[in-house]
Design a protein that fits this description.
The chain is an alpha/beta fold. About 25% of the residues lie in helices and about 25% in strands. The chain has two domains: about 160 residues, Medium-chain alcohol dehydrogenases, catalytic domain (Quinone Oxidoreductase, Chain A, domain 1, Alpha-Beta Complex); about 150 residues, 3-Layer(aba) Sandwich (Rossmann fold), CATH 3.40.50.720. Helix 5 packs across helix 6. InterPro entries: ADH-like_C (IPR013149), ADH_N_2 (IPR041694), ER (IPR020843), GroES-like_sf (IPR011032), NAD(P)-bd_dom_sf (IPR036291), Zn-ADH-like_protein (IPR051397).
């Protein structure tokens, strides 16, 4: 066994304490001390430095996981998700070494025993290891593989202040979009999207002015591309505003996923299928693992764009595992801008 000194025998982790009645709050989680096993053959011990707080946990906690490639969470289960950490112990013959920085899916704990095959070593392609938790791969894959952004396109990004949307606007611009429009619920976030991230206009969902009216004013000639993380009335309005041949890439459905009236696994929306037919629209959902070459391509371009200053990684760092449940509640309440990362 190759190790670094003073290996821990326990790990602090976040567990689901109870099934929420509606949206989860801090009371539904517990920080516990759990025994930490010695890595077996094919496993490594990782000290986590960062892990991602992401809205998909709402679906896993709600238990509506039909078609989702992740298991439901029951009371007593430890949460999990993307993390960046340092390998601190490996069995003999492991391809990894103590000191290697890796990404894996055993976040929400300070140490994790992980299958070596489930760890991805990170080099220096990104200037900061925490940037490996950025959610830009979904936006990049959807905009390049499904929507095929073309020079001069008008692009609408819903949920533009979230982890995907704060990267999607810049990605669309770098791919040649002529006008980029975003949506958010917060006037403060709308200002930041324009001043910091280069959105041409931002629409406010939930305002007194109907969303479809706002969209018609912001894109009087219609939209060519939709990058949708929300669904609901915003997707409905986008169909009405689409130009002939518009391409819609759906990467999320937060209108249903984060609804207190639902369990996180459904998001109904009314679609005018007549308009879809006569306008020749395409609507496709994007799965992050397909095609498999997107992640490597995105990471390379993301690193280049970060170093050149053409893109940034908007995120909030929350210090300490004890604050992780509060960070999840705040994310669901829409109180953060960009990605939310717990720093250990």
């Amino acid at each position: 066994m190759s190790v670094t000194p003073s290996l821990p025998r326990t790990a602090r982790e976040i567990r689901l304490a109870s099934v929420p009645d509606g949206l989860p709050t801090t009371e539904n989680f517990a920080v516990v001390e759990a025994p930490l096993p010695t890595p077996a053959a094919g496993q490594v011990l990782v000290r986590n430095h960062f892990f991602l707080v992401f809205p998909g946990l709402r679906t896993l906690i709600g238990g509506e996981v039909d078609g989702v490639p992740l298991p439901a969470l029951s009371p007593g289960d430890a949460l999990f998700g993307p993390a960046v950490g340092e390998v601190v112990a490996v069995p003999e013959g492991s391809p990894l070494r103590p000191g290697d920085t890796v990404t894996h899916l055993q976040g929400w704990r300070d140490h994790a025993v992980v299958d070596a095959a489930a760890c991805t070593p990170v080099g220096d392609v990104l200037p900061d290891p925490v940037a490996h938790l950025a959610q830009g791969s979904s936006a990049y894959g959807a905009l390049t593989r499904l929507a095929g952004v073309r020079a001069g396109d008008t692009v609408l990004v819903t949920g533009a202040a979230g982890a995907v949307g704060t990267l999607a606007g810049r990605i669309a611009r770098l791919l040649g979009a002529g006008r980029v429009i975003g949506t958010t619920r917060s006037p403060g976030k709308a200002g930041r999207l324009v001043s910091e991230l280069g959105y041409d206009a931002v629409l406010l969902s939930g305002s007194e002015t109907p969303f479809a009216v706002q969209l018609a004013a912001a894109a009087p000639g219609g939209i060519d591309v939709l990058l949708d993380t929300v669904g609901g009335e915003q997707l409905t309005a986008a169909v009405g505003a689409a130009r002939p041949g518009a391409r819609f890439a759906l990467v999320g459905a937060l209108s249903g996923q984060l609804s207190a009236r639902r369990a996180g696994g459904s998001a109904p929306a009314e679609i005018d299928t007549f308009r879809v037919v006569v306008k020749g629209l395409s609507l496709r959902g994007y799965s992050g693992g397909d095609p498999p070459d997107v992640e490597q391509e995105w990471t390379g371009r993301f690193g280049e764009w970060l170093r050149s200053g053409e893109i940034t990684f908007p995120h909030t760092r929350v210090p300490g595992i004890d604050r992780a449940p509060q960070a999840l509640q705040e994310l669901i309440e829409g109180r953060h801008f960009g990605a939310v990362v717990v720093e250990l």
